[in-house]
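thought: fold this chain, then report.
action: predict
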Amino acid sequence: MKKVLFALSVSLFMSFAAFAQNAAPQPAANPNAPVITFEKTTHDYGTIAKGGDGTCEFKFKNTGVEPLILSNVTSSCGCTVPEWPREPILKGKTASIKVKYNTDRIGPINKTITVVSNGKESSIQLRIIGSVVDNSNGARMPQNDPGSAPVAPR
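observation:
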């Protein structure tokens, strides 16, 4: 009985070892792959009034060799709508992703936009942040002070 269990254990071990040897090698990284380089990956709206202009732009450049193709650009919420170029971006050329945030919602802004491409980094996260305030009560919007609250009228 001991010999049967030993033989069974050895053959089981050998079969696992044989399967481990057949693992496919990982393909080498393409040295000519496109590289997407953004000027910025976060846009801060600061404090913006309800109903204000919620558009921003993320400019980027293909710093790789092969043409860059954006296959999909999605946002974390339906209140954020991205527009992106559908044609390939050639080596050294620039383009941009335009984002429109619906400023009818009062409160903080913290959304992500996921960019999927054929680049060396296949998925990149962009962010928009800020705060939407209700300016209907006559409060003044602070100037050039992102992140601060509106000033109440006197």
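thought: worth noting. The helical segments are 2-20.
final: tokens above.
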